From TrEMBL:
It comes from the Bacteria. Keywords: NAD, Oxidoreductase. Residues 30-274 form the Mannitol dehydrogenase N-terminal domain. SUPFAM superfamilies: 6-phosphogluconate dehydrogenase C-terminal domain-like, NAD(P)-binding Rossmann-fold domains. Residues 283-473 form the Mannitol dehydrogenase C-terminal domain. This is Fructuronate reductase. InterPro entries: 6-PGluconate_DH-like_C_sf, 6PGD_dom2, Mannitol_DH, Mannitol_DH/Oxidoreductase, Mannitol_DH_C, Mannitol_DH_CS, Mannitol_DH_N, NAD(P)-bd_dom_sf.
């Protein structure tokens, strides 16, 4: 019989494995986290684990999934414990995290999640639900026509979306005289706290019940999170379990680098995160812009170019000289769009990114990064391109990323496996591709479907540059497109 990682087996772990030394029985929940995925477990949960180890026993995490039961099914038999594997080169350091005290699956039991959110002891709600879960329309507003939003407005007692759960919980807390929690968004949205506040208020305006006035009193600090967390493989599980001497159904792989920048606006208290490396600031937007445009933007570039060139992982793709050179050019276009007065150091930041992308121990798959491009590219690429276009500056590298995304979507089912990655716009994208339009017509229709640069006077310039790249990729391949761009960059002006 193979034993499972749990509170009963913690003491049997090898001495080389870092494990919680605090008494987990004394931990009290203070945070509900929505979106119990690998990133949260490698990032926020690890920071909270440090706080619990330092004696802040009131900040245990109730983790909830709004969709799948997979994480709950893996962690519940393990008493919420799991292994965090920090990998670089040939080194791998293992640490068991104990900050998640219970796990919930919202679709199975919405009432249980509502009870947790309404608990007066819960002072913070954090979220990592991915961009598409915010259910925005092409203009960036709440998609009132979305069937899940329509359901929540008609069935407030059985919510499906994050808005429905937050709304019902705020009403319950107000009725019970409990203080309002702080909502801390940790997703890659521009001005994520302010964005979530605006979307929830739009939901509240449709809902009524006095919710709009209540929601307007909630604190929504913005935050920026950064850590590379590749998907866990069966090989990872086998290797980790062998080192533990017990089974762990879902260990999490990550890198040594970890960053969290948070606006310090909390109405009901917070953990002493800064003791463990979290940066508390008045305004997170400069850090957010740098991360979205330099890390996330280059990640998307590496993903789509890498897939088209047959590279399965970031490290493999970044080792391709053509891709590495392209990323350097992309950074060259994106860096001037960052705020000049925020004491940022983009040169040092991109040097760290280069080192991180070269980490061959992290098998960060390009297909994993490629998911949901239509939701990610606006803040990662389009925002920089619009700013550059307004200054009449070059946008060649930026728009090649968008062309590579379109080309990678078109390549599924032929050059690439049909189900290699998905996108919320897969239906409209397939319909566009089926008509076999020209590159220019394709780009126009894709921009319309995705809402890229909607209403901007410089949209045509972005579309024209994208279409030129897409035509080159379709005609002679992505390697040719990269070579032509490199020649253009080298040619005297």
């Amino acid at each position: 019989m193979t034993w499972r990682l749990s509170k009963a087996t913690l003491e049997s772990l090898p001495a080389s494995i870092a494990a919680p030394l605090y008494d987990r029985a004394k931990i009290v929940p203070g945070i509900v986290h929505l979106g119990l995925g690998a990133f949260h477990r490698a990032h926020q949960a690890a920071y909270v684990d440090e706080c619990l180890a330092a004696g802040e026993a009131g900040w245990g995490i109730v983790g909830a999934s709004l969709r799948s039961a997979d994480t709950r099914d893996a962690l519940a038999p393990q008493d919420g414990l799991y292994t965090l594997a920090v990998r670089h080169g040939q080194r791998e350091d293992l640490r068991v995290i104990g900050s998640i005290v219970s796990t919930l699956v919202a679709p199975e039991n919405p009432e249980a999640l509502l009870d947790a959110l309404a608990d007066p002891g819960i002072r913070i709600v954090t979220l990592t639900v991915t961009e598409k879960a915010y259910l925005r329309d092409a203009a960036g507003d709440l998609d009132i026509a979305h069937p899940d939003i329509a359901w929540d407005l008609s069935n407030p007692g059985k919510p499906k979306t994050l808005y429905g759960f937050l709304a019902k919980a705020l009403l319950r807390r107000t009725a019970a005289g409990a203080p309002l929690f702080t909502v801390l968004c940790c997703d890659n949205l521009p001005a994520n706290g302010a964005t979530l506040r605006r979307l929830l208020l739009q939901f509240a305006a449709k809902r009524g019940d006095g919710l709009e006035g209540i929601a307007s009193q909630v604190a929504f600090p913005s935050s920026m999170v950064d850590r590379i967390v590749p998907a866990t493989t069966d090989e990872d599980r086998a290797r980790i379990c062998e080192q533990l001497g017990v089974d762990d159904a879902w260990p999490v792989m990550t890198e040594p680098f970890c960053q969290w920048v948070i606006e310090d606006r909390f109405t009901a208290g917070r953990p002493d995160w800064e003791r463990f490396g979290v940066t508390m600031v008045e305004d997170v937007s400069p850090f957010e812009d740098m991360k979205l445009r330099l890390l996330n933007g280059s990640h998307s570039a590496i993903a789509y170019l890498g897939l088209l060139l047959g590279h399965a992982t970031v490290a493999e793709a970044f080792a391709d000289k053509a891709i590495r050179r392209f990323v350097e050019g992309l950074w060259g276009e994106a860096i001037p769009t960052l705020p000049k007065d925020a004491e940022l150091d983009p040169a040092a930041y991109t040097k760290k990114l280069t080192d991180r992308y070269d980490n061959t121990a992290l098998q960060h798959r390009t297909a994993q990064i490629a998911i949901d491009g239509s939701q990610k590219l606006p803040q990662r690429i389009i925002a920089s391109a619009l700013q550059r276009a307004g200054e009449n500056a070059d946008i060649s590298h930026l728009m090649l990323v968008v062309a590579a995304w379109i080309a990678a979507c078109e390549a599924r089912g032929t050059q690439l496996d049909a189900g290699l990655f998905t996108d919320p716009l897969d239906g409209p994208l397939a319909a566009i591709a089926a008509d076999k339009p020209s590159a220019a017509d394709t780009v126009t229709r894709v921009f319309d479907a995705a809402g890229f640069a909607k209403g901007h006077t410089r949209r045509d310039r972005l579309a024209k540059a994208t279409a030129s790249h897409l035509q080159a990729i379709r005609g002679k391949g992505v390697a040719f497109a990269l070579l032509e761009l490199a020649k253009k960059k080298d040619s005297p002006s």
